[in-house]
Design a protein that fits this description.
Layout (H helix, E strand, L loop, with lengths): L1 H9 L10 H17 L6 H15 L3 H17 L3 H9 L7 H12 L7 H13 L4 H15 L7
Helix pairs in contact: 1-4, 2-3, 2-4, 2-6, 2-7, 3-4, 3-6, 6-7, 6-8
Protein name: TerB family tellurite resistance protein
Organism: Paracoccus stylophorae
C-alpha cells in the first residue's frame, strides 16, 4: 500500500492530483510521525497520541488507527526532506484541512508533556510550508495547549 502511495505522492505529475481520503490521512500521519521523531525520541506516548489523533480525525477504532500509524511510519522513513515532502502534501490536501493538521502536529509535539525546540521548529516549518501563517499557527498552538491542560511556556 505505502509503495503505491509513495509513487502517487512523488510522481512528476505536471498537475498534482488530490489524494484519496485514506492516502491523504496516511500522508498527514507521516507528518505527525516526522514531528514526533524530530527530537530523536519517538516515545510510546507520542505513538499513542498519534493513534488518538488519527482515530478522532476519521472515526477509526484503535486497531485501524495503529495500522494507519504503522503505514505512516514506513512512509515517513522513505519520504524525502521535510520541505519537499510537505510541499507535495500541500498540493494534495484541501486548504480547509490544513489548520486541523497544524493542530494535530502541535498535539503530537506536546504528547510527552515536554517542550522540545526541535519538535516546535518542525511544526513551525511545516506550518509555513502548508501555507498557514505564523500567527494562526500560534493561536492553534495555544488552543491545543489549553485543551491538553498545559501552560504555554511550561509545556
Amino acid at each position: 500500500m505505502f509503495r503505491n502511495l509513495l509513487y502517487r505522492l512523488f510522481s512528476d505529475d505536471v498537475e498534482p492530483r488530490p489524494l484519496a481520503a485514506e492516502d491523504a490521512e496516511v500522508a498527514i500521519a507521516a507528518l505527525l510521525v516526522r514531528v514526533a521523531r524530530a527530537d530523536d525520541h519517538y516515545e510510546t506516548s507520542e505513538k499513542q497520541r498519534i493513534d488518538r489523533v488519527l482515530a478522532r480525525r476519521r472515526g477509526l477504532n484503535a486497531d485501524e488507527a495503529a495500522e494507519r500509524r504503522a503505514a505512516a511510519e514506513m512512509l515517513e522513513a522513505e519520504a524525502p526532506d521535510t520541505v519537499r515532502f510537505t510541499r507535495l502534501i500541500k498540493d494534495r490536501i484541501a486548504l480547509e484541512d490544513r489548520s486541523g493538521v497544524i493542530g494535530a502536529m502541535w498535539e503530537i509535539a506536546y504528547a510527552d508533556g515536554r517542550r522540545d525546540m526541535d519538535e516546535e521548529s518542525m511544526v513551525r516549518l511545516v506550518s509555513g510550508l502548508l501555507g498557514v501563517p505564523d500567527r494562526d499557527s500560534a493561536l492553534i498552538r495555544q488552543k491545543v495547549l489549553d485543551d491538553m491542560g498545559l501552560q504555554g511556556d511550561r509545556a
